[in-house]
Amino acid sequence: MTPFTSKRTDSVAAQGELKLIAGIKRWLGSSSPSSPFGIGDDCAVIPPTKNHQLVTTDPVIFGRHFDAQVPARAVGAKLLKRNLSDIAAMGGKPVAAVISLALAPETSITWLQEFYLGLAHCARRYRVKIVGGDITEGPTGFVGAFLTLHGESTGTRVVTRSGARVGDRIYVTGSLGGSLRRHHHDFTPRLAEGAWLARRREVCAMMDVSDGLAKDLDAITPRGLAPAISAAAIPISRDAQEIARETKTDALHHALCDGEDYELLIVIRAGANSNSFETAWQKRFPKLKLTHLGHFVSKNRVPKDCLHLANFHGYEHLS
């Protein structure tokens, strides 16, 4: 669905800021609490907590993160879910969000309403309160939504990207690649899985796969180490395989480089009982595949039959 309209009467320009904000409050409904814990004051008030505070931010921009083929409700949901994926990667739970919009004057009111209805539905599903935001005019042809999500740890521990050592084992959830088919907006953030993993002592590092496994695996690899993984271990999605057949490209390349998989990349200690860990996972999450990719080795000891990830490039911003 295109975000724009050729009829001024159907555009945000015809509404004006105050009327538009009133409409947004209606569209958000119960997902946005009353002031001062929601929209209406200079700042929203977020109740204090004893746990670690988590903050992340991600946008969706027309032409970059979605196009006219993606339903407006799915765009609203994607905006929140891609932020939820960051919270999941640290074993946290979401609490509240603020959203800022930059809208071209010709932005369609109908599109914006559908966007907010999708955002509100997703917020209610994951128990997130939309507590404020801002609206500004953008240039012609531009629609951008920028969400900042506040969360908290589910216990005393927060799992970060750092912490891996030689011999530690590498896992990933789900399957990878081909996200442009649909997965980039139709996915489930791994909140329950991330919270469960944060309670496991053997888990020492974690992040979400958003820019492609080749790039994100590098981000979780300590200096002086390298991941020893084989091509056969990569869980390639059906979408990646179909795209590869249609375009006569390499399915492995799609799995490593496409990005927007929103799966979890997990590292567990070398001395941990991996069989026990995998069995516990299968019992807790029987419908979600967990794949052992390999382990970390010294840079000068990577086996010759392993993938050389330097030959692959994930999504590069500003390139």
In short:
With 319 residues, this protein is of the alpha+beta class.
Description:
This protein is 29% helix and 23% strand. The chain has two domains: 8-153, 60s Ribosomal Protein L30, Chain: A; 169-311, PurM-like C-terminal domain (Phosphoribosyl-aminoimidazole Synthetase, Chain A, domain 2, Alpha-Beta Complex). The chain contains eight helices and nine strands. The two termini are 27 Å apart. It has 319 residues and is α+β, with helices and mostly antiparallel strands. It is globular and about 65 Å long.
Largest sheet: 5 strands, antiparallel
The top-level CATH class of the largest domain is Alpha Beta
Report the sheet-strand fraction: 15-25%
User: What sequence of helices (H) and strands (E) makes up the elements?
Assistant: HEHEHEEEHEHEHHEHE
Going by CATH, what is the homologous superfamily of the largest domain? Answer: PurM-like, N-terminal domain
Inertia-based shape: globular
- Overall structural class, as computed from helix and strand content, comes to alpha+beta
Number of helices: 8
On the 0-100 scale, what is the average pLDDT?
Answer: 95
CATH architecture of the largest domain: 2-Layer Sandwich
Q: Tell me the strand order in the biggest sheet.
A: 6-8-5-9-7
Cα radius of gyration in angstroms: 21 Å
End-to-end Cα distance, whole Å, is: 27 Å
- The overall number of domains is 2
Task: Give the helix level as a range of percent.
Answer: 25-40%
Instruction: Extract low-pLDDT stretches.
Output: none
Number of separate strands:
9
For this structure, the CATH topology of the largest domain is 60s Ribosomal Protein L30, Chain: A
